[in-house]
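Obj: model holo form, ligand = adenosine-5'-diphosphate.
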Amino acid sequence: MKIALYPGSFDPVTAGHLDIIRRSARLFDKIIVGVYDTPDKKLLFTTAERVDLARQAVADLPSVEVKSFTGLMVEFARQEGVATVVRGLRVNNDFELEFDMAMINRRLAPEIELVCLLASPDYQFLSSSILKEVARLGGDVEGLVPPFVADAVRLKVK
Ligand code: ADP
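Output (holo structure tokens):
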């Protein structure tokens, strides 16, 4: 069984993340969406909330499971029997960061392969940070996240 891990902060899950998840679900038997509990960034949602929103967002995808993790991503991948890590690449900035992380992860766990999917044109500009900023300023976030995520963001930034 081919299991892939899609790790990230998911603060909150966006249509860009969901696009990567759906596309990965066509390539692998099972996808674990790994919600990293302590990313080096200011979070809007707690870990439990980020997991809960992601779970609701993938409820229609039977091969996708959402779990939080602590510590090294590759250790979590090993625990879960994952052979492949999936990441999404947007046109700006992502490549260098992903490249550096991939090199370190390869040193730590050479048996784990990385697969990067290119972000779809519609979501190239979309990040959780931009989404939160727009919501904070009262802008319309419809279409960038599922409706229940939009509601949760609006409530939080109020
Ligand atoms: P991180 O904090 O690790 O960057 P994110 O939750 O922001 O985590 O993103 C997780 C993964 O999803 C990363 O590989 C990121 O590049 C990718 N990603 C984020 N937004 C998009 C998007 N709009 N389209 C495709 N991939 C995306």
